């Protein structure tokens, strides 16, 4: 069995934005790129817009909310997360794209939790435990923030991920129908899962 180097985990930096955008899009089942395509300037590539947004300071997708796992100086994985507002104000859902509404509704059911918005590794390094290391970091960040619960949303059709989270102690709290979008590979439901961490 090959020995693989241990990843170094550090806070993300603006220069990481292009690879972060790609990993966030992979974790988000292609939904981020579709949303970015609608927000981009005329003629601007969706991923280029996404990179610009990630490099900024003021969105949930900001590098400030991300940590990366590096192997030999190259980003191999990332965790994007933050504590959800409590109370959680959904605002006017009718003003949001229909594909987003079920996700906002589910987030609102876990107010004050530390939300794992996205976690992903490059395909060539999967199976090396990097995702588990990043989830361990999420636990520490959750407790450091004063939250007691981790939360995440996953497509039910992504059965491998659902099984992994169940093995790690996450429980299904609620579901909402997944609204399809161009490039969407799944149908069915989005699933909100949470795990209570004991201090």
Question: Tags for this entry?
Answer:
globular, 199 residues, 6 helices, alpha+beta
Structural summary, described in words:
By secondary structure, the chain is α+β, with helices and mostly antiparallel strands. The chain has helices at 17-27, 31-39, 46-55, 101-107, 130-144, 159-167, and strands at 8-11, 66-71, 74-83, 114-121, 149-155, 171-177, 189-196. It has a seven-stranded mixed sheet, with helices on both faces. Helix 5 links the parallel strand 4 (114-121) and strand 5 (149-155). Helix 1 crosses helix 3 and helix 2 crosses helix 3 (46-55). The longest helix is centred in the last third of the chain and has 15 residues, at 130-144. It is globular and about 50 Å long.
Q: What's this entry about, in short?
A:
The protein is α+β, with helices and mostly antiparallel strands. The chain has 6 helices and 7 strands, in the order βαααββαβαβαββ. A hairpin with a 2-residue loop joins strand 2 (66-71) and strand 3.
Secondary structure blueprint with pairings:
Layout: E1 8-11, H1 17-27, H2 31-39, H3 46-55, E2 66-71, E3 74-83, H4 101-107, E4 114-121, H5 130-144, E5 149-155, H6 159-167, E6 171-177, E7 189-196
Parallel strand pairs: 4-5
Antiparallel strand pairs: 1-2, 2-3, 3-4, 5-7, 6-7
């Amino acid at each position: 069995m090959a020995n693989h180097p241990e990843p170094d985990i550090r806070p993300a930096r603006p220069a990481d934005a292009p690879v972060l955008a790609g990993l966030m899009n992979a974790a988000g089942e292609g939904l981020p790129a579709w949303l970015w395509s609608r927000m981009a300037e005329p003629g601007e590539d969706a991923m280029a817009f996404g990179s610009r947004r990630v490099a900024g300071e003021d969105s949930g997708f900001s590098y400030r909310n991300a940590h990366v796992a590096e192997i030999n100086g190259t980003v191999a994985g990332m965790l994007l997360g933050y504590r959800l507002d409590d109370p959680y104000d959904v605002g006017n859902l009718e003003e949001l794209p229909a594909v987003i509404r079920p996700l906002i509704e589910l987030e609102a059911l876990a107010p004050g939790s530390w939300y794992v918005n996205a976690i992903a590794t490059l395909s060539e390094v999967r199976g090396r435990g990097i995702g588990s290391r990043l989830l361990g970091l999420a636990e520490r960040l959750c407790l450091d923030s004063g939250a007691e619960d981790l939360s995440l949303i996953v497509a039910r059709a992504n059965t491998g991920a659902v099984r992994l989270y169940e093995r790690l102690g996450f429980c299904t709290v609620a579901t909402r129908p997944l609204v399809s979008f161009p490039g969407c590979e799944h149908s069915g439901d989005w699933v909100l899962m949470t795990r209570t961490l004991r201090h």
